[in-house]
Give the backbone structure.
Amino acid sequence: MTEISPNSGTSTRNRLAQWLFNPFMFVAGLPALSAGLAIILISGFFCWLGSTHFDGVLDCHIGLAAQWWIFPAEGLIDWILPAIPLFFFGLIISKSSFRLIDVFGTQALARWPYLITAVVMLPGANQKVSNYMIARLTQVQPVAAVNFADIFIFALAIFVTILMVVWMVVLMYRAYSVSCNVKGTKAIVTFIIALIGAEIISKFAVAWLLSNMR
Amino acid sequence: MKILPTTCPACNEQLKVKALLCENCHTEIQGAYDLPPLGQLSIDDQLFLLDFIKASGSLKDMAGLLKLSYPTIRNRLDEIIERIKLAESTGKSNKGKNL
């Protein structure tokens, strides 16, 4: 076996921070794709339990109950739609040759904070407060009372969700940067364009999916 | 083993070789020689390339043995290639000036 000295590796300092904010230094390709797809499917299961819809690349809403397959399908749409333009932007702006599986694999793994979102959205209090707010806004349903504990759980879930959105966007950018070897202004601008474009298209795609469900 | 410095500790400019010594007959050659492109790289980069050669140039093997992802290894190699190209182009332009 080839002997390799460990001195050419990255410093082990801040390894935890790198695992949290740039795990793609250590994982990419098929392992990232497998883990990412597993996470998307497990998130879909929790979303089904809590009727939580990831109805856009960055969206998370508590909504109507639906058939079980709708939830993982939403996750897959949210993964694939930004990955495609990021791959093509990478082809345009990167000076390196890179692999398709790294782009799609790292983008799938970058969605793992939404597994936490799916879990924190599980408590029934979220659904209760959400229904209460909708009822108050639309004034078409009788308003069911909510208590302080419900509001506290809902507020906590919203806070965690906002953190997870920010974390996921950071991971998605890191995934793009590492897998396509792109940095700087060009990388940031193309990432924002891909993200906004994917967000818009994903809203239509999920709406189409939900309309076909009925 | 002493580590060969490649950049000036005062101004960070690329160092040149001023003297070469034969340890056998103590002949000393003085001049101003450019370091070869690989010698101009940082110690970290040189060690990385050494490991890369030991791994028969396989990025996949390097990734596995260093416990880093394939694109991380490839990106690092690409950065080193850019630095080598820069060193080569600087060397060529210096030769042009000296002619």
